[in-house]
Amino acid sequence: MIVPTPSRPGPPKAIATPCVMVCAVDGESGLCLGCFRTLKEIAGWRALSDAERAAVMADLPTRRSQVDPAKLG
Question: What PANTHER family is this protein classified in (predicted)?
Answer without folding.
Answer: DUF1289 DOMAIN-CONTAINING PROTEIN (PTHR35175:SF2)
